[in-house]
């Protein structure tokens, strides 16, 4: 198996007032090249902290306690700031939840695409840009190039961001809830674009709280809960035979056939400032046993739950 990214024993947290709280606990993940890998869970489960740790874009009160993030045989956590800056937007691109955040409101789309560093040959720049915009199915290319970000719809801005990733020839694309702000039809077209990128050999890590898109688009799925990996598997297996009660609850909460009552996950995800002993899901779990309140389950055979180990 050819992996593009390996995360080893990663522990990350935040200094909040006088205490330190872990947001990622002992994360071990490998990402195979040319696949779409989903990282899923509710808000607050640690997905975005993971993406921001890969890109080294964590806030000042964060601390990486231990771990390695190996990308093409180099540990991203050991790179100097100017070295990681060269990787961001070049070998690794980010598609954010809100594309407006990644576009400068003061410059036209053309000027922003001209700034993508991988385009060296100035004469060919415009042709490369137009080719990328065609690939992301933008029809009125000349109008879009002359537009400012606020003149484009959310879906169109997201296409421009994906075009940037194409121009930069990134091998790895981190998509952080890229369709959350879009309506369903636009959202599907963006996800289809990600599928096309995968078919061209790109690797995509898709952060999402929406398991309905995971089953259709992603090869592997990692389920996180309060900074822990609770289940990991190929998406096929995970959806056919979910093991962890949290995974089952997330799948049970998906709308399926008309008239079927949606199941709610009881309670709410706790803040990281609340220290929970044992399995962190136990306050919400319908299967909790005595030992769940005091012994933390290990991830064994793809699942971290005392029901199986
Ligand atoms: Fe539920 Fe216990 Fe499994 Fe946690 S370890 S998910 S509380 S059964």
What's this model, at a glance?
The chain is an alpha/beta fold and 309 residues long.
Provide a descriptive summary of the structure in words.
The model has no long low-confidence stretch (mean pLDDT about 90). The chain has a domain at about 100-170. Helix content is about 30%, strand content about 25%. It has helices spanning about 45-55, 80-85, 110-115, 125-135, 140-145, 155-165, 185-200, 210-215, 235-240, 245-250; strands at about 5-15, 20-30, 35-40, 60-70, 75, 90-95, 170-175, 205-210, 220-225, 230-235. Strands 6-7-8-3-9-10 form a 6-stranded mixed sheet, with helices on both faces. Strands 2-1-4-5 form a 4-stranded antiparallel sheet, with helices on one face. Helix 6 runs parallel beside helix 7. The chain contains 10 helices and 10 strands. It is α/β, with parallel strands linked by helices and about 300 residues long.
Largest sheet: 6 strands, mixed
Distance between the termini: 27 Å
Radius of gyration, CA atoms, in whole angstroms: 20 Å
Low-confidence stretches: none
Given helix and strand content, the structural type is alpha/beta
Considering DSSP H and I runs of 4 or more, what fraction of the residues is helical? 25-40%
- Overall 3D shape: globular
Taken as a percent bin, the fraction of beta residues is 15-25%
Q: Ions, cofactors, ligands: which are bound?
A: iron/sulfur cluster
Average pLDDT over all residues: 90
Number of helices: 10
Run of helices and strands: EEEHEEHEHHHHEHEHEEHH
Number of strands: 10
Spatial ordering of strands, largest sheet: 6-7-8-3-9-10
